[in-house]
């Protein structure tokens, strides 16, 4: 067996019986335990100069907490909580990065991406927990948060693919004119993203194909001799079928994500290692980063715990105020597709942009595509399963408008990745596309108005009648049947 073959087939996750330690050299702090002064110093320096500047926003965290418990100024609570989410999410991302440094290369990237996605998972769970099932036909100001969740799922993917990747290409292109990235990162990322998008869009395609055949529930009659099968295919049955398809598809996507993680973590990882290692040696700030003081494992765990508590509290505050924000004039789609993904992805974006600026375009690309893949393959299916457990009808039946945005965005990004090279112009174009989407979302109507993927009902009239009158009407309809 050749040395190269042994390297490629060796597992990424180390065998504890043989290695004795999982801590990489660049992840060692040289200390142990918890030291408050050192902890604050490392926290303040963060992972980059941009992330360090974000730490000036920490005073908004106690302000948001105080406002939440002593006032009823809903918009101010939302605004301060929104700003406070940036440093809290940044700490979670930095703590995850410190933990990842103590792991092997590719495993560290996967772990760092996972910690970054914790904000998103918490957001989705808090949203579905606050959804009021009896308001499922209204908008967010009536307690219906399912449109916001669905928009946030796709908004998270679009924010990474268009805004984050565009800013990476733009700032990396300004400093390095042109940056070449390895084909394996872009090909694997694009392929997985297409598969994930296919799984997410199947329920919507199913619904769109059959919605014109569904009958109103009012006219559901007992089966008659010789009746056609579709006579019993009502709006309620179609929605139930879509819900079941969404749940099965979610389980399948989570299984696919498990296969992806296992593949990256157990075999065929040497090429990823080589690409990431090559990027790290091209890092313009490598020497400076290696000399930075680091968290001990204990300090890393404390940072993760503090950041998770802050992030969870702030997301609860944000979700509680969504009803008032929508009533103030902010559309549901803009809130879910633009505002929420922007704040919960802030830390990941800052990290990726800093990596592109330093010449680590492959790692930056992985930080853009990786979270999108995790959102589509794991985070979104997970919240469907959680809603199922909680007895709430969350499905993957997205609006046609949002489906079009996702498909077109994947095609645009795939076209820019095809040549294996990026520049500032491509980055600027991706950001412009994102801005156009944001403007369109601002003018998109709320769910109680927009029914692009709903059953066709040109007019809805509310009629109140007695049970006897309803029985007479049904008897009259039956008497007119052949």
Automatic annotation (TrEMBL):
Q: Which UniProt keywords apply?
A: Ion transport, Membrane, Transmembrane, Transmembrane helix, Transport
Task: Cite the InterPro entries for this sequence.
Answer: CaH_exchang (IPR004713), NaCa_Exmemb (IPR004837), NCX_ion-bd_dom_sf (IPR044880)
Checking Gene3D superfamilies in the record gives:
NCX, central ion-binding region
Identify a single GO molecular function assigned to this protein.
Answer: calcium:proton antiporter activity
Q: What is its main location?
A: membrane
Give one GO biological process term: intracellular calcium ion homeostasis
**Record field: transmembrane:** 52-70, 76-94, 106-129, 149-171, 192-210, 245-263, 301-319, 396-417, 424-445
Subcellular compartments: Endomembrane system
Q: Does the keyword Translocase apply?
A: no
Pfam families given for it?
Answer: Na_Ca_ex
Q: Record keywords: Isomerase included? A: no
Q: Which PANTHER family match?
A: VACUOLAR CALCIUM ION TRANSPORTER
- Family as reported in the entry's similarity comment: Belongs to the Ca(2+):cation antiporter (CaCA) (TC 2.A.19) family.
State what protein this is by name.
Sodium/calcium exchanger membrane region domain-containing protein
Q: Which organism is it from?
A: Parathielavia appendiculata
